[in-house]
Amino acid sequence: MRVLSVTSEIFPLVKTGGLADVTGSLPKALAALGIETTTLIPGYPKVMEQLKSATPLVTFEDLLGEKASLLHTRFEGLSLFVLDAPSLYDRPGGPYVDERGADHPDNWKRFAALSLAAAEIADGVLPGWVPELVHTHDWQSALTSVYMRERNCMTPVVLTIHNLAFQGQCGAELLDHLGLPPHAYSMDRLEYFGDISFLKGGLQTADAITTVSPTYAREILTPRFGMGMDGVLNARVSVLRGIVNGIDLDIWDPSTDPHLPRNYDVGSLRRKRENRAVLLELFGLDASHEGPVFSAVSRLTWQKGFDMFAETADEVVNNGGMVIVFGQGDKDIEQALLNTASRFAGRMAVHVGYDEPTAHLIHGGSDAIVQPSRFEPCGLTQLYALRYGCVPVVSRTGGLSETIIDANDAAMSARVATGFQFHPVTTDGLRLALRRALHAYQDPKMWARLQNQGMKAKFSWERSAQQYAAVYANLVRKSGQVVAPAADIRRAVL
Ligand code: ADP
Ligand code: GLC
Asked: Which of 77, 450, 452, 473 is the most exposed place for a label (fewest CB within 10 A)?
């Protein structure tokens, strides 16, 4: 089966969070099931710089008023369509924000153009490479199915919600500039409290909606987690399901990870100590101090609950532990964490920023990973933590609640516990969970068991990819298409 995936980020080319990890690793897992995915991404500078060679396929003279060309390339096992549109993507800053952290003012056009190009591909602009199914991700590609339906292209579409907090809203006056007719601005399409919502358009027109854990799929049906979209989602509940994310076991493997000074596996966990020494030095912490290292690698936002950690990190330090926080996000939360760290020189460090090697080293050298999210569609850091023998301390919400098994007495005696969960998701709840984890650390046998059980937990893509494959197959069967054999894009197009 031939699938067009459409996304605003993909690892290893461009990443601001877990979306990139998922769009970068799912195609490889699906390939093992006979599904050939080509992913359409914007040609940001970071993407264009890394392309070694690319085949030009087609030029759009007027893609929402901009000139753009579609390229094809292969990159580290991925098949990619790159939308090269300098007026939209060739600029400083990240995929969504400028150098000062403000949203690019024309994000509506940047991602509508991405979606429109995807709809063109689905509708046959590349003769010989026509997908049997389109998979869109989050609001940035959600207009794809809206554009497709407008041109009567009925190829099945799966829309995956990675985070409902981002919905792609813009003023209703932009409808015309989106190249959409007046009837698209209606309750059953894009209209959203007087504005346009890209995500709502996608939710209304996709054939299947998935989100990244069954628990989050249930949560978003409620006003508390629905972010204003719960009504729409309830109306479409018959096509909604949760499929938990997997992780790329080749990239996140402590026994081969090139970013770790010392590799280890479940049988040689002692070696983590050598990574710990390097880690503590990198963060300027007192390497002679014995005691657990509780770390966090995360976007530092309200969603992730790090304002609560700024208020509770003292619990770790006052009980003999050390704290490392690595990430970036809201300035207020960054500052609150830096303030706490300034009270505990040598024992707590906060580095604002993000890079992949440091993220790996933190997992390779820490004892516990803290993720106190207020909501978490799936969460990947806790899965990386398990694989690296770190014990996760997490809130009981979304994917965190179903990927970590709390170390209560029953789970300990059944030998299945892997971490610590807290609920309700409050500062006091977090403080208590930190205290429980610190207490458990005093019992080396118990801690080793938690590490062991976590490292043996299976979060590869295998099972989840099969679930996506089943969703795809079902839709393609219903659409009555005959599935064509895989094609060579170059030959098919040129
Ligand atoms: P989310 O996608 O909501 O940020 P996940 O847990 O699914 O959360 O994924 C986090 C991924 O992003 C991990 O691979 C983590 O190492 C990485 N990450 C964490 N903080 C940042 C950041 N500030 N910038 C880019 N990637 C980050
Ligand atoms: C989102 C979510 C996160 C999820 C990731 C990948 O950014 O916040 O929970 O793991 O997408 O699906």
From this structure: 77
